[in-house]
């Protein structure tokens, strides 16, 4: 089973769970290891087992649990989270990603799309679905700073692993100017209530806001 991605599904729709078992049972690269109606049920049942690589999490569960709390609870175990929902709710998509979800898909997507998303998430790449891209492109909440094209370019290059010197060279500016742009980015995120200090923080903001998707 080396190289197989373990998957769990949290959803209170029994028909969907049955469908997921049938779907994922035919994908050799994935192995469904658990299903549950709530996050608490999943965590209790798997307390003695390694956490699944990826959890498919229904956005709204009938137990009334908060989506952001569910996402954080799953992340704390070491799993990555792909949120699935019946509708592309822009506000909830953004809230889910900011809570740490690695992706968001509506339930009308086909099996190849789901499998591709799970694979991307398992390898730490995250997944950029049309729903997520649309939500981020139209996100005008105060928590999403407005970055200038040059600020965005320096942020993306630096957060992707470039040195500041390399990012500056690519942009055709001095290192001092590039640092000024990066400092402005950090200030804007701090003013938006999302403190950002390190390169890891910057990379997280890029993923949370899907800045590399559009």
Q: What would the keywords be for this entry?
A:
single chain, about 210 residues, alpha/beta, 10 helices, about 50% helix
How would you portray this structure in words?
- The chain is α/β, with parallel strands linked by helices and 214 residues long.
- It is 49% helix and 13% strand.
- It has helices spanning 14-25, 39-45, 67-77, 90-98, 111-122, 130-137, 149-159, 164-171, 175-191, 199-208, and strands at residues 5-10, 30-36, 54-58, 80-85, 103-106.
- It has a five-stranded parallel beta sheet, with helices on both faces.
- β4 (80-85), α4 (90-98) and β5 form a beta-alpha-beta unit.
- α7 crosses α8 and α7 (149-159) crosses α9.
- The longest helix is centred in the C-terminal third of the chain and has 17 residues, at 175-191.
- The chain is elongated and about 55 Å long.
- The mean pLDDT is 84.
Roughly how many Å apart are the termini? 36 Å
Report Rg: 19 Å
Strand content: 5-15%
The portion of residues assigned to helices is 40-55%
| Average predicted confidence as pLDDT | 84
* Class derived from helix and strand content: alpha/beta
- Report on the biggest sheet: 5 strands, parallel
């Amino acid at each position: 089973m080396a190289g197989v991605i373990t998957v769990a599904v949290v959803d209170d729709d029994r028909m969907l769970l049955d469908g997921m078992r049938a779907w994922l049972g035919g994908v050799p690269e994935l192995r469904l290891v658990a299903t549950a109606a709530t996050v608490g049920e999943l965590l209790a049942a798997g307390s003695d087992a390694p956490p699944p690589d990826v959890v498919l999490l229904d956005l709204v569960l009938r137990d009334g649990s908060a989506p952001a709390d569910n996402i954080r609870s799953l992340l704390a175990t070491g799993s990555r989270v792909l949120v699935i929902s019946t509708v592309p709710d822009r506000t909830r998509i953004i809230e889910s990603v900011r809570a740490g979800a690695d992706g968001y898909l509506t339930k009308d997507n086909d099996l190849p799309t789901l499998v591709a998303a799970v694979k991307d998430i398992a390898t730490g790449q995250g997944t950029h679905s049309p729903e997520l891209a649309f939500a981020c492109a139209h996100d005008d909440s105060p928590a999403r700073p407005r970055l200038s094209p040059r600020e965005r370019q320096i942020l993306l290059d630096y957060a992707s692993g470039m040195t500041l010197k390399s990012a500056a060279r690519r942009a055709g500016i001095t290192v001092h100017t590039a640092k000024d742009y990066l400092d402005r980015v950090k200030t804007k995120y701090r003013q938006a209530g999302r403190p950002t200090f390190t390169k890891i923080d910057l990379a997280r903001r890029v993923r949370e806001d899907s800045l590399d998707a559009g």
